[in-house]
Amino acid sequence: MMASGSLVSFWIALFTLKAYMLGDKSVCRPVRLPTPEEEDAKRLSRERTQLKKERERDEHPTFPFVIETAR
């Protein structure tokens, strides 16, 4: 049995596709997939952003962590 959320998503996708096929180009737009070279160019930026988040998390722990280590 399909979950109700999946069923709703299915019907939304079906109606969107039907509207697109009938000529309503405002319901969705095709997108161009990036090439592997373009993805590689973005990878360094993503990794740097992730490292900055990890460093921030390590330098400024959440409040419950501070309470636990103070005991």
Summarize the structure.
This protein is mostly helical. It folds into two domains: 30 residues; 40 residues.
Describe this structure in words.
With 71 residues, the chain is mainly α. The protein folds into 2 domains: 1-30; 32-71. Helices cover 70% and strands 0% of the residues. It has helices at 4-21, 36-59, 63-70. The N and C termini lie far apart (50 Å). The mean pLDDT is 83.
What layout of secondary structure does this protein have?
Layout: H1 4-21, H2 36-59, H3 63-70
**Cα-atom radius of gyration:** 22 Å
Which stretches are poorly predicted, pLDDT < 50 over at least 5 residues?
Answer: none
Instruction: Give the overall form.
Output: flat
Number of domains: 2
What order do the SSEs take from the amino end to the carboxyl end, as H and E? HHH
User: Termini separation (Å)?
Assistant: 50 Å
Alpha-beta classification: mainly alpha
Total count of helical runs of at least 4 residues: 3
Average pLDDT rating: 83
Q: What is the percent of helical residues?
A: over 70%
Instruction: Compute the number of strand runs.
Output: 0
Major sheet summary line: none
Strand content: under 5%
